[in-house]
Amino acid sequence: MATKEHSVYKLVGKDEAEGFAWSFEGPNTEAVLYPFKFPVIQSHEVRIQQTYFGLCYTDCHLVNQDWFPINYPSVPGHEILGRVVMKGDQVTQFQIGDLVGAGFIRDSCGKCKYCIQGNDQLCGQMGDEHFIPLPKFGGFATHVQFPAKWAFPIPNTLPQNLTPPLLCAGITVFAPLKRYFNPKKEVGIIGIGGLGHLAIKFSAALGMKTSAISTSADKEQEAKSYGAIDFIVSNDPQQMAKASGRFDIILNCAHASTVDEFIAQTNLLKNGGDFIMVGIPAVNKVELQLPFFQLVCRQISFIGSLVGSRQENYEMISFANQHKIYPTCEEFEFHNFKNAYDKLLNGRPKYRCVVKVGNAPETLKL
Amino acid sequence: MQQLPEHSVYQVQESKETADAVAYAFLQNTGEPVQYPYKYPNIADDDVRIRILYTGLCHSDCLHSRGLWDPTIKYPSCPGHEVVGLVEKVGTGVTKFKVGDKVGCNPQRWMCQTCELCKKGDNQLCSKGIFLYDDNNFGGYSTHIQVGERMVFRIPEGFNDALGSPLLCAGVTVYAPLKRYYKPNFTCAVIGIGGLGHLAVQYAAKLGMTVTAFTTSKNREQEIKRLGASFLSSSVDVESLKAEQGKYDIVINTLYIENEEIFKSHQRLTAPTGTYILVGLPPSKVNFKLDHAYIILNQIRVAGSLIGNYDETQEMLEFSAQNNIYPIVETFEFEDFPKAFDKMEKGQAKFRCVVNVGKWAQANGLWK
Q1: Which of A47, A220, A315, A347 could be disulfide-bonded to A231 (CB atoms 3.0-4.6 Å)?
Q2: Which of B127, B295, B305 sits opposite A299 (nearest CB)?
Q3: B282 vs A293: CB contact, 8 Å cut-off?
Q4: What is the CATH code of the structural domain delimited by B170-304?
């Protein structure tokens, strides 16, 4: 059970709890159960009782301070799905009982240059309120409370047990594919994991000729079942040489572990092409280096993408629903959260971990 | 006169009297270029032979002829890819130009026009593209140049020939990416106010952007502001670069930055959703480090750019003539080609060296 109390969420006994969270009290520790009371709901917020939530490796990076120091206790999690059980009095777009989802972004100002342009995920005005997983409690809980603005209506036709990863992994790959989309383009997806397997599905459904690039030769059938027209084994130099200069777009869903590997990945890009980077590794792990010559004389671009705007989220949800694009998930019960987290951190889940909240807290042995 | 070596394409001549042209050629990777009179092979059906009026000198000429990029380069080597001249002779199949037309040549000699990149319009990336001195052809350090008509540009009315030759490389190198990625309300950072940078400032300002020049030369403030910069800032002081973080929608880097920390600070000048353009090339095949965390969190594009395509080059010539955008040049006589090259090689040119070729060529009977 939790011993460290958060400044915003009162640590209480299970009988008075409004929600139960899985809390980390330090880096590289096991999560502990944290029964809590919410602060008073604000007029623009909704409170969600989750049905399922997803786990993303970014949550591990945050908890373990791979990028920057954080405060504890920390309840991350940013693949949220559930029903509205309470709403602030200014919230008109949702009713009690509506099924909604949320991702990495908690709030945006709506007034700055980036919000107005439609890039509200890049709003720089919200300070601590910008991201869902911290410093306030995020999605590793039975209940979450955040601005209604960043809650997305979820259609009933999406299978709930497979929906949460769409709200981070899904949008992360969908947004740049759509942003740089062109029906004539050839797309290469590097890495068939949590991000990559969804990227293949979205890219193929968008109508682009999509190939999968992977170290695992045994994933070929699977990649093709997602819509890949071709499969390239990245540690086979012959196959890589044959694919040299083939792709207009490369969406990198698996960071290179050496400079040579990175350069080999960039060789697959056509001259004038775009190499899209998502997912940030631990800061000091790998240096992405390239000869200047290559960048200039081949006129290639490296482009970053960060989840997506609200607009892009609505499109992604609608598109996934239309084309029945769902992630492959491993499911865990709420009281076995530690197993889900451990599988993500140390194992290789196929491909995303999802927790069924079900009728927790009844299932919790307290 | 020393015995000149033979060349695989051009017939060396004993003197200019029998020559079609006189080049300044390098006979080895060290030393000065020397006069090299030569005859052309027959003019191909689609070739245009040009009497050069002015040639601009570009730093990549050194990287080429000193064997710094390709140590297996063949000599004699005649670089030069910033040419303004007059058509002297045309092949039987030439339709775009006639004798007497004012024309220009840029670094590309030929494009196939059938590969995917040519069809898309990016002939500078042509899979079979040939650059001006590839296959040991002679470039612009000469009284004449002979190039296929498809890679010859029309010089617009009112163009300042004496100043304009560097635009064929330096001009398009900055104009093309600025135009490709800009929006009129953008803030623009130009890093390095040298041959490329001083042109970038002019174009960016004329395109309507607010320009900050990042430079080490604080004493040139008035001059740089006259070119169109609104502000100046240090290109090397890490603290002041940090203060400028995330402020520029478009950043164009004309330099080769060795220092990792400074290069990272330059990438971080880019505003969210902005573009960081790299055009400067280093002397050898060195690596640079992408600041990937910043790039991803801010949705930045880091883009390389190589000269420009045919349309961008032609457009640049017209935009420059209309808006009076020219480099600041030092002009040399033809016989001072070695001096001009030396000044440029030592990085002392302010800002580009140009050789007045036509004057000597005409006076010495080379306009036959």
Answers
A1: A220
A2: B305
A3: yes
A4: 3.40.50.720
